């Protein structure tokens, strides 16, 4: 790795975060900070323009103040005419942290004037006027209220991310706007915001909407490439971090981009271990992970000022690319990779894969080092490799399984999906594949047009992917909702099982008492029951290598799903210890994710695509090799791995979907 000759001169720390505000008192300091943002001089002009326009596009560098300030400006000038301003975010972490900050700036308690709403969490009240929410939440709301009547302004933030939900929202919001106009209902303003985007493409789609450019502050960033391709980016990132840490004065913070929770937690641990064991006299390192599933108190740590004489290092996913701004960053370490969902409509497989970032993403990452003064960015790839990155990221809608989205569009009353007003159309094959999937699950019927069945309508009521939703409906029939609710909740959060590299044997030994020869789902259920029996005791979690945080989230998710069941008059009954019934329900819901052991007993063949798949080493079934399994997801690393498996009887699979298995009969 090449290093700079010498670092930029050190600068005094200038920022403190006000964590508490008493009543309506807003600190002068916070107000001063608002006025110091690059967006502030444009305040009047922005208010005027948005006052005038139905739709506008606003572009400005990350950190200029778009997300936190614009909604406040619009509220302060009452452009919203007393109705709610919705601000969508692709990520829940961003929605939560930003609303906290804005509530502080407004001097109100979170959930009052300023609130947020994300899946499984609604912190708003009838007083809420600025509502930060995930794009997925606004889409769900639109099912009940397609005209979005409670909002007068919808801000679609981080539009360049092109998540599947944002892309669908584009069309849904546009439709709500024109329908409201036609019906003479209060107009709906649409504001599309981003740090970077293909302006012409967006403007053309939004009826030639004008583009407002914000002046940003960006200092030069020196870019260093790896002299040769790196085989292990986590390792290289850590090496680079310590190279910087050794030579640079403290209080110049580092932002490191990795791909996901497990990888980040393990890197954080390694960094802490190295700091502890080193004899060298280095400044203390404050290490903060940052990823979507992190609970909010831990997220806020990232924004806390670095103590004098220390260095903060933030190990983040691509969430730190544009959606949250962190002060004090001087150095960026870019692994050049990101975790992305990739769908192959031919095989029907939706894979979570670590892939190369696009040039646009690499540029955004680099930019994070030059927010307050000149900085440096270390790219852990060569310049030749960079040249081969694609220019921009392919919209998620063109690379993901569309079954959830198609189910939602149908629930919204949009049945002609192929002709829906998409900004970039997904391929017809992937729409057809999604409709097929929903058809196999009994959620749609194909008559003159595609229609939602009563089953499909019930599935759409749950904020879950269709297969999980279907599994809940089946569990209701089999009187085991109590158990399946638990399993579905645990599958909806990040892993509750911890296996630290350094204590692997110990962790596996502790887990032994939960292990089930019936598979991971049954083990998860055992863990949950034991956790409830000790009332979520912290020591118990530590001793048993259970992630208490994720366990709590799962409990919360379960409560919300339970509430939906109650609202829909589903009796929540238990099947006691009858794990066969539980597995049967899982087989009925996940028959499309089934695999059979190959004749030689080494690998598996997926029944839907006839592809070779393997059991993930983390599964309790890794060494068992049952004849038939269903799995929750596929992950592609060196091989195509099935994760979260359950042993099933092949007869259940053909019972679940006789037509589906006519061609691909299990056992043939
Ligand atoms: P943009 O959306 O244009 O990228 P933001 O409105 O998110 O910009 O951020 C503007 C500024 O507000 C940032 O530079 C950052 O200093 C500050 N800020 C945002 N969120 C927080 C937070 N949770 N804590 C402290 N400061 C924050
Ligand atoms: Mg922003």
TrEMBL record:
Residues 240-413 form the Helicase C-terminal domain. Its EC number is 3.6.4.13. Keywords: ATP-binding, Helicase, Hydrolase, Nucleotide-binding. GO terms for biological process: positive regulation of transcription by RNA polymerase I. SUPFAM superfamilies: P-loop containing nucleoside triphosphate hydrolases. Pfam families: DEAD, HA2_C, Helicase_C, OB_NTP_bind, WHD_HA2. It catalyses: ATP + H2O = ADP + phosphate + H(+). Residues 47-215 form the Helicase ATP-binding domain. PROSITE patterns: DEAH_ATP_HELICASE, HELICASE_ATP_BIND_1, HELICASE_CTER. This is RNA helicase.
